[in-house]
Structures are given as C-alpha cells and as structure tokens.
Amino acid sequence: MTELNLQSIEAKAFVPARNFDLSKRFYQALGFTIPWSDDTLAYVHHGNCSFLLQKFYVPEHAQNFQMHLLVENADDWWRHLDEQKIADTFGVAISEPEDQPWAMRDFTLFDPSGVLWRIGHNLPT
Asked: Would 27 disulfide with which of 32, 78, 114, 124, CB 3.0-4.6 Å?
C-alpha cells in the first residue's frame, strides 16, 4: 500500500468582483500581480499571499466578505496607498492606521465591490 501525501500547500479565498476589470486594476494598483486571468477568474498574487478574484457579485455576500493582509509595516502600506491616491482613483474608503486592542496596528480598505480588507502588522505584546 502506498502512503498518502495529504500535506496542504495553500488555501485561497474566492473574492467577489462586481466590475471584474475595475477590480483587477484596483488590485494591481495596490501592488498585486495577476499572473493568470480569463474572462471570469483571476489569480491575484503578492509575496506569500494570493487569492482568486471572481467575476461574481451578490451584494449581501460582497458587503459581508472580509480579507486580512498581514504585512511587515501597516504604516508603510497606508502611505503607499495614500500616495497612489487609491481612494480617489477607485472611489473606495480607507481608514488611517491605528493600534487595536487585539495587539495589531491596522487600517481598513474597501475594494470597489465592497469587500473589506484589514491590512495590519502585529504589535509587540
């Protein structure tokens, strides 16, 4: 009998997109790359994280969907997004970084479909 290899390699979320092309441009403006895409699905990648952007939109789903991006420095990410004028360019909301009671410094960013991203780094405990 052969031994089964059940080691997990990666888990990816399927992120909804109301306007698929706009969402792809948004994530590329954030600094993500899209190594592969077709008419309904895109593989979105940055560093050690990735997700699948899908041409699928149900308002109740998208507006209750959240992603978390753990970064080395949330303030640097926020400055980058501010300098890129992401909020103005894509008509999205972004908050300023703040220390959270759960020992993280983070900020929130909504994508063009209403998906909420929390981008943050761990604080020393």
From this structure: 32
